[in-house]
Automatic annotation (TrEMBL), chain A:
CDD domains: TM_PBP2. It holds the Pfam family BPD_transp_1. The chain crosses the membrane at residues 53-73, 88-107, 114-134, 146-166, 173-193, 213-230, 237-257, 263-283. It is found in: Cell membrane. Belongs to the binding-protein-dependent transport system permease family. This is ABC transporter permease. Residues 107-287 form the ABC transmembrane type-1 domain. InterPro entries: MetI-like, MetI-like_sf. Its main location: membrane. The keyword Membrane applies. The keyword Cell membrane applies. The lineage of its organism: Bacteria, Pseudomonadati, Pseudomonadota, Gammaproteobacteria, Pseudomonadales. One of its GO terms (cellular component) is plasma membrane.
Amino acid sequence: MSRATAEALNPAQLPAKLIAKPLAPVKRLPNAPLRPARRVATRLPNGLWRNRATDAALAWLLPVALLGLWYVGAERGWLSEQVLPPPAFVYQALADLFASGDLWLNASASLQRVLVGFLVGSSLGITLGLAMGLSKTVEDYLLPTFNALVQIPVLGWMPFALLLFGIGEPLKYVLIAHAALVPVTLCTLQAFHEVPKRLLEVGRAYGFSRRQIVTDIVLPSAVAPIFTGLRLGFTKAWLSLVVVELLASSEGLGYLIAYGRQLFQLDLVMAAVVVVGTIGLLIDRGFEFVERRLNRGRPSKTGRLA
Amino acid sequence: MSTLTITQSSQSHRYRGWVVPIMAVAVWWLASSQGWSSSGLLVSPQKVAVTAWEQVTSGQFWRAISASLTRDVSGFVIGTTLGLLLGCLLGLSRLFERLVGPSFNTFKQISLFAWIPLISVWFGLGDVAKVVFLSLAALVPVVVNTCDGLRSVSPALLEVARVYGFTRWQTIIGVMLPAALPSIFTGIYLALVYSWLATIGAEYLLVSGSGIGNTLIEGSEHFMMDLVLFGMIVIGLVGWALNLLARRLEQRMQRLYGITPR
């Protein structure tokens, strides 16, 4: 036994401070004065530049500059009115559309078409996607044909549908429904393929029946991707609506554009484009809002489908 | 559980994919040969085949398809190049993003085909207008995906770059661009798909010259269903071929850069 350990074991030789003293009675400290939490600098050094106000100002810089350029250009006559009408004309056209009720008439026609088409197309798409997602047999039979038909864009179907259905309302409904159907079906199917494996394993470990797996695991995890498909489907439906109305219609926002083009009234065209863009943007924002709520807590994916 | 773990299509069930199309063609053939409908629109499959043969041998088809593809490719190349530039600027420069980003996001919401009337007034109905329109179609997905890819580079990678004392330029070339490549490819791939769609649209709406879209419109105007069906098949096949080409290129590039597909 070495000397060091022998020494350590002898309490009498330990330094005095290491031997436990009897506890002194606890003295309460006075309450700490209420102090605001200390501020910690979290902003980056250039944080001054990163607040909302400057963001908004910077965002408006480009549009305002372009508008200014457009205004000055029209004023000075750099371009003829037929080629680029001054902003005031476009505003006037927009106001006229509002006042005469034409805007409401055409917008409601377009919205009705897109709604009916989208509802039909997306419900068919969800049904088809569900059928293919739930049954491998159905998928084996249908998916190759579906994939082959998808290769032909909506515009490719147009002359065909024009011959079959004529220039009536059915043509628009069919084409818009088709446009919405494709992404909705594909996203629904993909949602079924991409159910997290871990969850399925848990379900299996708990001895879930097939029905339970579908209703408790697969469907809940498929809701958000299906919704993404719906949003995509609506974008496509809106796009096709404009094309269909440009080519074959006598009312609607697309018709307004085509009409303005024929009469070389570019102010009318631009006003209609603004309305189309605004409505599309608003509806897309609505979808985006719901989508974000559905996706809460899910890891975000990089890249987008479209 | 075989239905829920769909990863590979079993070889023995390959035939199933052919059932629906073959039956559809059989019904079509029967309907036309038995004369189920007196409408002139019900053309027989043979008639379509004959029309296709005539189109191909008379050289009309080649003229149309080469015109369409030339437009498609030139619009695609211009749009993608501009899109990559704009996307990189948006993805790499905070200031540029804050200046241009909101405007671009609004701009991309405008339905693509709504531009046609403006483009037709500014650029006419010829090839210039079509190429401008196609570039626009290709530009948007490339910008969105390039910018997204650069923005979502993993912070861990950026930290490593900072630890190694990379300069900004080295970080961009060595870390950010390779990490963003898959997303950039997605954008280019989408651009290829969109520009083909837009080619057809441009040929419908800016009617002049020849092109596969014009062939379709012509068939539709003269109630020639055979010509319309032939055109549709060609559009589908070209779209499919472009798709396949893009996939192959993407895979090749990914292997070249050692990127695992997402």
